[in-house]
Amino acid sequence: MSFDEVNKIKKIFSDNKIYVEYLEHEPVLTSEDVAKQRGFELK
């Protein structure tokens, strides 16, 4: 997903007063790798 697409989604959320926490990470290949970077456990 491009940064433009992400920003459009963030704007839609903001315009509709939907507040979420955005977590960014280095490029990875699997959700397991993302979880490790963030210190999360996959269920």
What class would the helix/strand composition place it in? mainly alpha
| Net shape | elongated
Q: Please report the number of helical segments.
A: 2
Order of helices and strands: HH
Largest sheet: none
Radius of gyration: 13 Å
In total, the number of strands is 0
How much is the average pLDDT? 91
Give the termini distance in whole angstroms: 24 Å
User: Which parts are unreliable, with pLDDT below 50 for 5 consecutive residues or more?
Assistant: none
Helix content: 40-55%
How much of the polypeptide forms β-strand, as a percent range? under 5%
Key structural traits:
about 45 residues, mainly alpha, elongated
Short description:
The protein is mainly alpha-helical and 43 residues long. Helix content is 49%, strand content 0%.
Structural write-up:
This protein has 43 residues and is an all-alpha fold. It is 49% helix and 0% strand. It is built from 2 helices and no strands. It is elongated. The model has no long low-confidence stretch (mean pLDDT 91).
